[in-house]
Specification:
The chain has 412 residues and is α+β, with helices and mostly antiparallel strands. It folds into 2 domains: 8-222 and 398-403, Ribosomal Protein S5, domain 2 (2-Layer Sandwich); 225-395, 2-Layer Sandwich (Alpha-Beta Plaits), CATH 3.30.70. It has helices spanning 8-23, 73-78, 117-129, 153-168, 175-190, 197-204, 248-263, 283-307, 315-327, 334-345, 371-385, and strands at residues 29-40, 50-66, 83-88, 98-103, 137-143, 209-214, 220-224, 232-238, 350-354, 361-367, 391-395, 402-403. The strands form 2 sheets. Strands 1, 2, 3, 4, 5, 6, 7 and 12 form an 8-stranded mixed sheet that branches. The two termini are 36 Å apart. It is 38% helix and 21% strand. The structure holds 2-deoxy-2-fluoro-alpha-D-galactopyranose. Belongs to the GHMP kinase family. GalK subfamily. InterPro entries: Galactokinase (IPR000705), Galactokinase_CS (IPR019741), GalKase_N (IPR019539), GHMP_kinase_C_dom (IPR013750), GHMP_kinase_C_sf (IPR036554), GHMP_kinase_N_dom (IPR006204), Mevalonate/galactokinase (IPR006206), Ribosomal_Su5_D2-typ_SF (IPR020568).
Amino acid sequence: MNAPVPPVQSRAEDLVRRFAEVYGAEPDGVWRAPGRVNLIGEHTDYNNGFVLPFAIDRSALVAVRLRRPGSEPDFEREAEADVVRVASTYAPDGEELSRARFSIGGLEPGGVGGWAAYPAGVVYAMVHSSGAAVPGFDLLLDSTVPVGAGLSSSHAVEVAVAVALNELLELGLDRPRMARLTQYAENEFVGAPTGIMDQSASLMGQEGSALFLDCRSLDSETVPLPLARHGLEMLVIDTRVVHSHADGGYSARRSSCERGAAALGAASLREVPAGTSLDVLDDETRRRVRHVLGENERVLQVVRQLRADDVGGIGNLLTASHASLRDDFEVSCPELDQAVDAALAAGALGARMTGGGFGGSAIALIRRDDEERVSAAVLAAFAARGFREPALFTVLPADGAGRVRLTWSRGE
Ligand code: GAF
């Protein structure tokens, strides 16, 4: 449980060494982008609403080197200045590295599969939505964000690539523009119709705080989340039920919300005035809309409580969010419900699924002294139901993406 994550600095230094072995040269630098936990504000981002995620102390690292004519032995042989070579230390089938390559000029939506679609999508977005000239480059990826756990491992990769290329190519994109750019990569290239929350958390998170983001204006503020000072911890329960947002459930929810807004005469659910009757909607659409309207209110309430330093007091709102996602929005699953119920029964102050749902992770706000008891209760409940053993670990609010300062590497 809670296996320690190696420090970023030593991971980055290892990555530089591996990069030299793989590509025969040192990288231009190493960039880090964290995964995220959403504290509250679920399925509100694509409805122009409010979200309150935080960047976590688990991250993707990319070492990148722009390819320069004449600088590498095989560059001339490949004779393609726009070739991107990517490799990842996360290699499923027991191989040492998972490798892929693509040519920038040949990129088309859906044309690159597997994890390489994320760097490819960012390049595609830079070329097609920002008009940037992107040369070929070499990239090596390492990540401590568990894949498929609903903690935004794919956005962490995209954001790491975006901040690396933004700096190396001197594109001058600010954080909100990089959030839009990586959303474009997800929506247009990868084919997942996701909102703007995950990449914003990865880009704009701040240690010790959550990010209060208005997804309509992209105005953001940090809100203190001093867990340790209150003797609290955020426990992640990764159900290990894997779901992709490119599958139908997520886009079906999005369409329901759009239908609901249109039936209420609003451009988006954010524009629906408080107190509007939902009676004109059919039962299913009414429940979807009721979740989004209620969830926006819960975000505002949690922000008020955190600003009043009432961290323990937000627990009930987290649990209410879960009930709404389970009953009205219908994006939970038996494993997520079990995680929440078992954690609450063992003394958690609040618990909810986090992220898009249909699998992935739940979070539980717990007293530090209760970690073992809550974890044991969750494991026992999963075993009793015959569910796959979940992964349990605590997370802390961390800083958003940036360059890792290496003490000895070229270019520092
Ligand atoms: C996924 C999406 F990527 C986010 O944009 C958001 O919609 C979330 O599901 C649900 O709140 O993580």
